Structure prediction request, 278 residues.
Amino acid sequence: MLTEQSKPAPDLLEIVFADRNKTYGAYQLRRHYPAYLGRALGIGLLLVLFALALPIVLSAVSKAFPDTENTEVVVELGPPPKPEKAELPPPVPPPTPPPPAKATIRYVPPVVMIDNKVPEDDLTPAVDEILATKAPVGAQTKAGDIDGPPSIDPDPRDFGPVVETPTPKSNDQVYEFMDVNKMPSFQGGERDLLSYLAKHIKYPELARENNIQGQVVLSFVIDKDGSIEKVSVVKDIGGGCGKEAVRVVEGMPRWSPGEANGQAVKVRFMLPVRFKLD
Prediction:
C-alpha cells in the first residue's frame, strides 16, 4: 500500500482545479498545453527546413532537366512571280477642232463729239458699213464665217452686266409673342395641350409627401421647324415639380411654328403648368 509519504505531490494545475469540475475545457487545455506547444514547434521547424531546402531542390531539378535549345527554322522563298503585262488602254482620239467662229462686227452707240476732238485711232465702223454687212453685231469686230456657229469664248461684254441674285439671310432672331403675325400652336390646339400635360406629368413623390401644390411657369423657344428648345423654369414651387415640367415639355411633339411677315420664325413661349393634389 502506498503511504502518505509515497504518494506523488500534486502539481499546480491539480491544486488550482482541486475543488472544480475537471471535465471543463479549461482543465483539458492546460493539461495538454505542453503537448500542443511541442507539436507546433515541430511543425514550425519543419516549415523552416523546407523553405531552406527548396532552392537546393529546385537547383537540382533544373540541372537534371536542362533547357532545350531554340531551333531556328529558315524558310527559303523562291523568286517573285513575274508581273503580268497590263493591257494598254486604247489611244485617245485627237480632239475635234472647233468649228470656225462666227463673224461679228463691232457696234458702239454713237457719241456726239466735236470733229477735231475725235481720236485718230477710232476704229468704230460707220452705220452704212454695219448695215452693208451680214455679220451680226457684237462687242468687237471678228473675222470668221458669217453662217458659222457663235464663238466658243464670247466676250462677256456681249451679255451685259452680270446680275447676282442675293441670297436671303437666315433669320435666327427669337421673336416675342407680340411681334409675330401668327402664334405657334400645339398640334390639336390648347385642349390637346392640356390633355398631353395631364397624361405625361407624374407628380413628384417629394412634392406629394410635403403637400406641395401650385403653378410652375416655363419658358421655351419654338424653332422654325416646330421643335422645342431652350426650356427653362421661370417660376418653381419646389419638390421637383419644375424638373418634372421641364422633362415633359422637352418631350413634346413638334408644334406649328409661328410666322412673321409670312415666314416661319423662332418664338418664345410661356407655359404655366399647375400641380394639384386630389
User: Anything to note?
Assistant: The helical segments are 12-16, 25-64, 127-132, 190-200, 205-209, 241-250.
